[in-house]
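Quarterly update from the structural biology core.
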Amino acid sequence: MSKPNLRTLNPIKFLKMDGIRKQKIEKAEAKPLPPLSSYKPNQIAAALHPKRQFLIVDKIIEHSSDVKTFVFVPDAAKGTTALAYFSAGQYLSLTLKIGQATVTRPYSLSSSPKESLEGKYTLTIKRVDGGLVTNYILDNWNVGTEVIASAPLGDFTYEPLRDAKKVIGLAGGSGITPFFSLAKAIADGDEDAELTLLYGSRTKADVLFLQEFSEIEKKCNKFRLVNVLSNEEAEGCEHGFITADLIRKYAPEDEPYSIFMCGPQAMYDFADKEIATLGLRRKFVRHELFGEYHNPQRNEDYPIKGTETFKITVRIAGETKTIEASANDTILCSLEKNGIAAPARCRSGICGWCHSRLISGDVYVPKSVDGRRLADFKFGYIHPCCTYPISDVEIDVPPFRS
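Predicted structure, tokenized:
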């Protein structure tokens, strides 16, 4: 290694430069600085991470009475002229006004990243029995409906520095949507991975995007679909559930692989036990958290066994309100049912958008979705989207941010 040039490192020389700078500043023309928005890095940041996006439903594809794909384009009249780019596997958080309640819901993008550059997003939404938002969307949205969405969010994405080159995807129900996006991104050359997708459905008639996946398989040798049917046997399909033995059957034997999983909570409860027997490194098992955790009573450590109700005192936007809440509803869900607009995005305990302070009372958070940091435990913060009251509670909630 060569020795440093002492002349270059002479501190006296740097002290003289300070005077030269001051002289140049004094002689410079006095004029206002350009707005921050004119700087290229800020323009790129605004394009990739807008505070909100205004969309219009341009087309509706009806797969069945309970499943529809909505195609969105930018609402230029509201100021959105281009859609934010995203990575396959990300979601949009939608803000909706239903009756007197302002609610948010996350939905995974089923379109490819390439399509966003063409001015198109697609969301495929399946009806949930008793679901407030899915029922409202499927029954009320038409071509021309205006929608407010977040920028693309979430980290259920392929990252070559973390994930193995070969991915085994486990999907159930409408959990197929991020994999549809990933399969298209692989076919487009936007992701350098190989995906074998095990898709669990009751019957072959329940399989979404069957023809579309078939077309991707024909043109891309890095993608394969394996349908796993629980309620019927069909040619070319596996029968039963997605077990460890089935994963081993399709996983590579002599090289590492990642497991990506997206589906209902019941699927996670079953599949996690199966995956644990495979001996994979923790970083190779990825979950997409699928909205709110439902029915906490199935957990042995949940202390409430009936239908008790409690009072929640809410401090929000300078006001204090008290509401009645079921112990079997998340605090966030109870706020929305009572017309209180609270901030939320992932609704899974991860993003921190609903981060609120627990002033008093006792709460329950399922361990599998508790995304709090050590500082949250120390200073008494919770995520209302995955927290249940088990006594009367008082909380301080940040104002709503769409």
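The mean pLDDT is 92.
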